[in-house]
Structure formats: C-alpha cells, structure tokens
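User: Hi! I'm working on a homework problem where we have to compare a predicted structure to a textbook description. Could you give me the structure for the chain below?
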Amino acid sequence: MELRNIAIIAHVDHGKTTLVDELLKQSGAFRANEAVSERAMDSNDIERERGITILAKATSVEWQGTRINIVDTPGHADFGGEVERILSMVDGVCLLVDAAEGPMPQTKFVLTKALALGLRPIVVLNKVDKPDAEPDRALNEVFDLFANLGATDEQLDFPHVYASGRSGWADMELDGPRKDLSALFDLIVRHVPAPKQLARQDEPFSMLATTLSADPYLGRILTGRVESGRITTGTTLKALSRTGERLEQFRVTKILAFRGLSQQPIDEAVAGDIVTLAGMTRATVADTLCALEVDTALPAQPIDPPTITVTFGINDSPLAGRDGTKVQSRVIRDRLMKEAEQNVAIKVADTPGGEAFEVSGRGELQMGVLIENMRREGFELSISRPRVIMRDIDGVRHEPIEEVIIDVDDEYTGAVIDKLTGERKGDLVEMKPAGTGKTRIVAHVPSRGLIGYQGQFLTDTRGTGVLNRIFHGWAPHKGPIQGRRQGVLISTESGVSVAYALWNLEERGRMFIGPQEQVYVGMIIGEHSRDNDLEVNPLKGKKLTNIRASGSDEAVRLTPHVKMSLEEAIAYIDDDELVEVTPKIIRLRKRELDPNERKRAARKE
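Assistant: Happy to help. Predicted structure tokens:
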C-alpha cells in the first residue's frame, strides 16, 4: 500500500481539527451508524472547553489504495514545542489559512519551521463560504509570507485549494462543485512525496521518539516515525540519548499503528510508517530507539527556548488542604518533573529552599493549562507572577520581544497604540485597514509589557479587539515598564464575608469576592480605586438597635463582583502577591518577599 505522512498546521481557530473530522468521515474511517462527537481529535477536556488544540495527535485514513497518516498540530504559539517535534515525522504539510483573516502570527511560526525542513506545503484557503471571506487577498498574503520567509522557488510554487472544513468540501477552483474533499485527498497523494525511508527497509532498525504518553496496561509508550529497518513484537532494542549515551535495553511488548481515531496492534512496522512502541522504562522524547548494533543517535529538531518563568509552591494559606488531596511539595515536584519529561518546551528547576519550583515555558496560556490540569487532579498550589527570562548577549542584557498583531475597530486604534508604544515600550511596525471599519496593527513589544495587558486591551476596545502574539526575537533591555496602576484591598480579619461590609466597601473599589465567602488575613478581596494598597474589614456587620429610623433599613444591593479566570489572576498579581489555586477556588493574597526579591522589585525588572 502507498504511504503518505502529512501534518495540518495553522493559526489557532482557523479550522484544522474540523477539517480532520471531515477527512475521517469521507475516507470511511467511521461506520455509517457510529456516533462521532464534533472535533473528534480534541480528546482533552480543556481542549474541548476552550476550543483549541493543545496536544499534537495522529490519525490515519485510507484513500483509493493510499494510507495517509495525518497529524493535527496545536495552533497557539505557547504549544509550539509540539509543532517543532511533529514536523520531523512528516513529508508534507497542509497550511490552513482563514480566507477572511489571512495569515496570522502562528501561521508564520509553523510555516518557518516547515520551510526550514525543506517541506513543500499545500495551501488550503479555508472558510471561503464566510460572508467576509477574501480568498484572493489571503492567497496573495500567503505568497508574500512565503517570499519573506525565504522559501525556495520550488516551495513558492505551492498548490492551493479552496475549502470549507465545516461543510466538508474542497475544490481547485473557487466556483467548483463544492461536493466533497476528494480534490484535497487527490492533491495530497500527488503532491506529498512518499517517505524516503521506504528505501531503507533492509537497514538496521532506528526510530526517533517524538511524543511520550502512558497507558494503564502498557506503561510508558513512545510514538515516532520509523527511520530505517523493520520491527516486530518481541524484538530487543536499545535507547540512545541525544548525545549518543546508552540509556537502556528493552524488549518491545507491543507495536501500535493509527487506524482512524484509535490505535490498533500490528505485528510488524516498516521504515516510513508512524507507530507507537511499548516496553521501555527510561527512554523519552528526542531519544533514539534502535537495533543493538546501531551506535549513532538520530538528530533531534532543536526546540526554541522558554521565555517566561513562574514559581510553583505549596499552598501555605490558612485555608490550605480543605479542597485538594495533593498538597505536599514532594508530590508537586514529581508531577512537574513528569510534565517536563513529556513536554520538551517546559523546564523545571528547584529553588534553594526546596518548597517551591521554577517552571519555565513559552507563555501564560501554556502555564495556565498546566496549572488547570493540576488543579483538576487534586493539587493545591501557590503561583507567583510570571517573569521574563533575560539573556546576556555579547555582555549586553537582552529581553524577549514579541510580535503583536491586533485587529481592532478604527475608533479604538489610538488607545491601543498609546498603550503599546507609550507605557509598554513597544515599536509600531505596521498599521493598515483590515476590512470594513477595522484596522490591523503590528507592533514589536517586550514580553514584560504584555504580561497582564490582555484585560486592559479588552477594556480599551470594549471587548471587540482580537490580539495575537508570537515570539519575535531578543533585543537590548528597554528599561523599566510601569506595572499595574491600582492598589488592592486586603482583608484584616479571618472568617466569612458579610454583604453589609462589602456594600460599604464598594466606594473603595471593585470587589473580587461575594458575601458568605471564606476570607483570611492578608487575602486580596478587591481592587482599590487608587494606587496604594488598603487594609479593610469585610466581616464588619451592621450595628443593631431597638430603635427604628427612616433610612436605616435600606436593602443591601451589591454590585456583581469580578470573577477572574486562572490566566487573568496570574497576569493581574504583582511581585509581592500570589495566586492560591485549589480544585474548587482561585484566591489572591499578599506574601512576604525575601531579600533578593525585594531588590528585584525595587529595580522593577
């Protein structure tokens, strides 16, 4: 049977997972009466809730005698570590572009990686049936992007199709019959080369591990593409690290191949196919699994370095241990080390005291997803404010810079540009019309300036703006950037909040808690209307007398309090504050700074 390996890459929410759904349905991967959920590839609870792909996943379809292995990749830059590994497994990519939005930051990110590997993309102009779609403009912008990224003449001569993933059709012409995806299937078979590894089936076995997972029955399992040779169940292999160091020798207990949405055991795997092996105990991502006579490790794709770091600590508040079951630092450390092993874009380091851990990653969303997974598993944590990772380049202190692309209504452009280029030390790169009454702003802004900016941005644009960001490069440190302007309201008492007290405090600022909620000394219960912190008593009840007077029996009507999401809370806090995360609730609180942190806060890094 003919074989093709292809990845689907795109910006977040451009329709990758929906298109894979239709490819599976039209290839006959499901029975006629099989119940299939929408976005079947998004198997993770958080992926379904947020509508984004976080983990790269493979599937397989058959089309007229050809097996096509398809990898669905994440569309958010924070999960780019998944994309970088996956592209080394495939021989071609489908670049999906929204016909209305055109190429976006993540489109540029994943395309750069694909072109560097010498892959020749197929461009799919998706959602061409939307009222505001401009497929010709989007196609021109894609061509310009290819040229700007230094694509070869062969890569610039890319084929393209017009498609609607939700409606399940793709055509070579915009005014085609719009019946099914056969045009896309045929183009993949024609344009994507067969794996060059097919010619190496008689060599000793070798495979580069690209994703790691665990199975309750099989234990640790590694997925990758077979680079050379053949493998059968029961064969003895060894694992080599990136540097060629021998890690372990093991016997292959199971070989699994992707068939539709499930993995099925097979007796033999050959060079070129994407398979999963079980039986190892130490081997992990980027290691080489090979025959005993092989001594050289396969080259692994380098991963971009992390740009922010967050401190994970134990929850030491007065309300600790009431909601979660996993509260010890040892258990938290084990969980973080397990995450770092599976996700190569995350680094974990111990702090001197041993009670907290420095976790470095790509961005606030990646950290938010990790914390959300941990709280659902029963962990209680205290989380610090994210800090950017600085670098010394030729003796000069450099900081990470991000490219920000914003689509906003014309009337709000002034406020957005003022915030980015004034307060947050950004540089305006481009500003152009983006459809009826909208403007597209492109700016290069320090990562420090973007921490906590999302909430301010939504306020400035009345919730209508769309902000996308991606790591751009390193630049000399741009000096101090002003942090949050408002102070906070801090509780001076422990107990249960009282509606009457909160009602009297409303003139001081906006509340983060409602009545009948547990509070403690040092807990942040609201945002002060001024720039200083204020200690208040949310437990103070109304003094009762036996005298009735006009006006003293007014009903207490509270303004609804602000309920922050996990990412909003992490971005909101200052250097001397923490987010307390439990399976049931998210709280903010003050903390004591150690001497080193006091110096850092004084420098306002």
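For your comparison, note the following. Residues 135-148 form the longest helix (14 residues). The two ends are 59 Å apart (CA to CA). Good luck with the assignment!
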